[in-house]
Here is the input.
Amino acid sequence: MTIFKNSKNFVVNSFYNFKERILFDLVHRTTSSQRLEIEQFISTTPLDHGKDYYASWTSEIKNNHAFLMTHINDDFKNYHFVDLGCGKGKVCLLWHKLNQKKGIQQNITGIDFYYPLIQIAKSNYRKLFLEEGHFIHGNVADFNFLALKKPLIIYLFNPFDEYMLDCVLNKIGKIPTYVVYNIPMHWNVLSNHAYQRIYAKSGANQNQTTLIYTNIKSS
Ligand SMILES: C[S@@+](CC[C@H](N)C(=O)[O-])C[C@H]1O[C@@H](n2cnc3c(N)ncnc32)[C@H](O)[C@@H]1O
Here is the structure.
């Protein structure tokens, strides 16, 4: 019985990994789907509080883009989109593609503390759009969000632990912000910072669980 259940899980997981990760790379000739465990990162700078690299599911990025575009409406383009822990860049690439389809121009930035991942993100962006994307090598703990001079859409796909999330929210402070949190393991940190939940979705697989929060008070 257990062998049967395990093989069924293997088949289901492989199907979703193909549909939600590998297919994106096949269609766009990018390289984002292969996982890299943080223990394999070779770095001279500390990688404390961070998690493994693995790519977001295509359908989740599309759902989250559609929700925020409708929710924020005309002002959506004025928000600076930042993927914290962007890895190989998939979220930034797809967000830009979805914006293009709707004729929206929006600032998009990806940040990751592992340089080889940033190099891959840049190369993926160049391949897809034939221009340079905005990817920064650095620790989110050191990022100056105020310097962007815009309200923010922050994308989190299970990038780090609660200590780092608390640190990031302190740095964001009072900047009007929406936080998309996929695999929201430490959502309580957002509640502790008085963020309000405006969207919740869950599914059989943890990659299908997303919460969206904001610190913007509704009038
Ligand atoms: C689960 S992956 C998410 C990748 C990408 N956002 C996506 O959805 O496809 C988490 C990423 O966060 C990065 N990361 C973790 N802690 C970080 C930190 N403190 N500063 C910058 N990047 C960090 C890791 O290197 C890893 O690439």
Summary: The beta strands are 80-84, 108-112, 135-137, 152-157, 177-182, 196-201, 210-214. Residues 37 and 52 are 4 Å apart (CA to CA). The first helix runs from residue 2 to 28. The helical segments are 2-28, 58-72, 90-102, 115-129, 162-172, 187-192.
